[in-house]
Design goal:
Methane Monooxygenase Hydroxylase, Chain G, domain 1, mainly alpha, 0% strand, flat
């Protein structure tokens, strides 16, 4: 009975940690949404809210990291349980970095507001990128919650789309700057934001890869999407 009780405690601790990770995920997704809206509407209050949320995300990362350290010290987990904890530690790092990228975008919005320019950069071109990375993050977190690898390849394929959209935006912005040097400052700001969104996509893909590692025991980092798909379909 003591052993069964210990296992139940261990499972409860793991579930509590996973719940905090999903809480972090919800916060960073809201950061992404608010960061984009703060840009498009040049809303300094919304930008400030993104930065405040980032502090909550950072605090959760510290809490989960400490929880995982305590679980390892007390329970000495092995095999799949250890993989679970490793997945959690890696995932919270990527979530914290997604929050950082959203905060960078919010700072651009704040800078634009404070400069009180007559002409402000247009960010409509990157809306599609934001929609994609938000979907990637949701799918990756859903895979994390369910320990389901079936849609992780979808995240990797969407990351390729985001990369292509970033390259297309960069080519377009370079053309603008070459044709009219007056657009250089604004174009660089749009490019900075587009790069932050592209990095968010990379972090969402990382989370999906950790799920594959957890479920299949295979490290699919630095592999092609086709190789990742083969691993997810393997029995």
């Amino acid at each position: 009975m003591q052993t069964e009780h210990t296992y139940k405690q261990f499972d409860a601790e793991l579930e509590a940690v996973r719940a905090k990770v999903l809480q972090m995920g919800g916060l960073v997704e809201q950061q992404i949404v608010n960061a984009l809206e703060s840009l498009i509407s040049v809303n300094p209050k919304l930008a400030a809210e993104v930065m405040e949320t980032d502090q909550r995300v950072n605090a959760l990362e510290v809490q989960v990291d400490e929880d995982c350290s305590h679980i390892i010290a007390r329970r000495q987990p092995a095999a799949s349980d250890l993989r679970m904890i490793m997945m959690v530690v890696k995932t919270i790092t990527d979530l914290e970095r997604i929050g950082d990228e959203a905060t960078k975008i919010a700072r651009v919005a704040q800078k634009i507001y404070e400069s009180d320019r007559m002409y402000k950069p247009r960010f409509n071109e990157i809306k599609t990128m934001v929609t994609l990375v938000r979907e990637m993050l949701r799918t990756a977190l859903d895979a994390f919650a369910r320990l389901d690898v079936t849609r992780t390849v979808e995240v990797a394929r969407q990351d390729e789309q985001v990369d292509e959209q970033f390259r297309a935006a960069m080519r377009q912005l370079i053309t603008f700057m070459l044709e009219d040097p007056r657009t250089i400052s604004m174009s660089l700001e749009v490019l900075f934001v587009a790069k932050a969104i592209e990095r968010i996509g990379d972090h969402a893909k990382n989370i999906a890869e950790y799920v594959v590692y957890m479920v299949k025991g295979k490290d699919v980092r630095h592999t092609s999407v086709d190789e990742m798909e083969r691993e997810t379909l393997a029995p």
